[in-house]
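Regression test case RT-17, inverse folding.

Input:
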């Protein structure tokens, strides 16, 4: 048997029911602005760790950790004596090691359980040193191998060296096209590691480093950044990219790109402009989002169409979205360039009044205060509602809660326990 804690929402006859469709979800965002968060200008990455904490890579106070109540600054012993460093990304490894990408300060590493830090920087005398001190992305493959994308090339760390006191940084051979290419992002499928670069999308074999290049505009290979791929996302063996020209799904076999478009019935809509996508993200419920240079927008991967929210397609208009993260409760966190941290609770749209679905005899009472809730082993929900004018309580068996529409059956029984408080 299970007891349900009484929440403020339950006090007004509101119940939590699963969303009927991922495409119908709606989010209301607000800026998160506690004492530390309020002064953050740009946040380039948000990730969660195995304990449920959230980590923020910012350009104002560096690396921050959120424990559910407040943000605290990651110990900055490694950065003492240095000017402020903009943090571009963070990786919490499979072994809970911390890797921090900075824009100009190189790469920082803290092994799990240790207080000391190690810093990696450019070294002209070391052919395997960090390719550039401006580190854009850090990614760990399922094998444990770590990939570091910089402004001027790709580094990697083999799995057996990744979680040691002295991880060995490696560099691709000089003849490799990713040796000195700007790296924007990573993803992984069974085919290999996908690398988003300023020269298009690359599929990289992590064992022998063989590669295949995918480009949107083959006729423009000689034009600087014409094929720039700003982000890549893999989900269930499918691959999408974000570029200056919008969002596309990649046909892995043929190399063809299929664009995400606006629905045909919205022709002439003033918002019909594909975003310059900085980040792509899929929630656990299967909602797909793209963060662009001036908005957040949702899309359906199966119809390859953008999804409207009411009369508008663009959410968070005029916000330069750089990262999206879903917390354990299903809420979305957005890191932006220039406007700090924004957050929304997905559960907001999953709460609704149950009175409309209840038997007519109960509808009025279910708009009143609910003092206690209970769910038995059969999944039946019981509510205790104060009876007006006296201190007696009546409990009504509302029926089994369904997975798609709240109360599934209207059968109920009334019981009076006549207990006085």
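Golden output:
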């Amino acid at each position: 048997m299970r007891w349900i804690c009484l929440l403020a929402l339950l006090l007004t006859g509101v119940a939590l029911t699963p969303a009927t469709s991922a495409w119908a979800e709606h989010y209301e965002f607000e800026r998160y602005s506690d004492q530390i968060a309020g002064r953050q200008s740009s946040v380039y990455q948000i990730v969660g760790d195995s304990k449920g904490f959230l980590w923020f890579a910012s350009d104002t106070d560096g690396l921050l950790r959120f424990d559910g109540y407040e943000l605290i600054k990651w110990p900055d012993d490694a950065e003492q004596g240095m000017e402020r460093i903009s943090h571009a990304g963070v990786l919490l490894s499979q072994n809970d090691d911390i890797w921090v990408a900075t824009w100009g300060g190189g790469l920082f590493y803290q092994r799990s359980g240790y207080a000391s830090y190690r810093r990696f920087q450019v070294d002209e005398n070391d052919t395997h040193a960090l390719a550039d001190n401006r580190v854009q992305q850090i990614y760990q493959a399922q094998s444990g191998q770590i990939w570091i994308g910089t402004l001027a090339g790709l580094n990697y760390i083999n799995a057996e060296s990744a979680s040691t006191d002295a991880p060995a940084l490696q560099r691709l051979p000089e003849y490799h096209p990713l040796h000195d290419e700007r790296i924007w992002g990573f993803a992984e499928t069974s085919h290999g590691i996908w690398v988003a670069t300023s020269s298009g999308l690359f599929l990289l074999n992590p064992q022998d480093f063989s590669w295949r290049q995918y480009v949107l505009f083959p006729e423009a290979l000689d034009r600087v950044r014409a094929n720039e791929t700003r982000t890549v996302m893999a989900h269930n063996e499918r691959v999408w990219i974000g570029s200056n020209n919008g969002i596309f799904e990649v046909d892995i076999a043929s190399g063809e790109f299929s664009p995400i478009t606006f629905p045909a019935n919205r022709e002439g809509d003033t918002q019909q402009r594909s975003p310059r996508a900085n980040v792509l993200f899929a929630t656990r419920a299967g909602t797909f989002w793209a963060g662009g240079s001036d908005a957040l927008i949702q899309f359906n991967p199966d119809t390859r169409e953008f999804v409207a929210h009411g009369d508008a397609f663009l959410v968070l208009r005029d916000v330069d979205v750089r990262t999206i993260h879903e917390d354990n409760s299903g809420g979305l966190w957005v890191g932006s360039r220039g406007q700090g941290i924004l957050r929304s609770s997905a559960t907001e749209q999953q709460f609704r009044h149950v009175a409309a679905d209840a038997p007519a005899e109960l509808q009025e009472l279910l708009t009143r205060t609910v003092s206690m809730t209970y769910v038995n082993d059969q999944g039946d929900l019981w509510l205790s509602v104060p009876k007006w004018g006296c201190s007696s309580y009546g409990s009504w068996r509302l029926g089994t809660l369904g997975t798609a529409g709240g109360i599934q059956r209207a059968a109920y029984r009334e019981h009076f326990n006549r207990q006085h408080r």
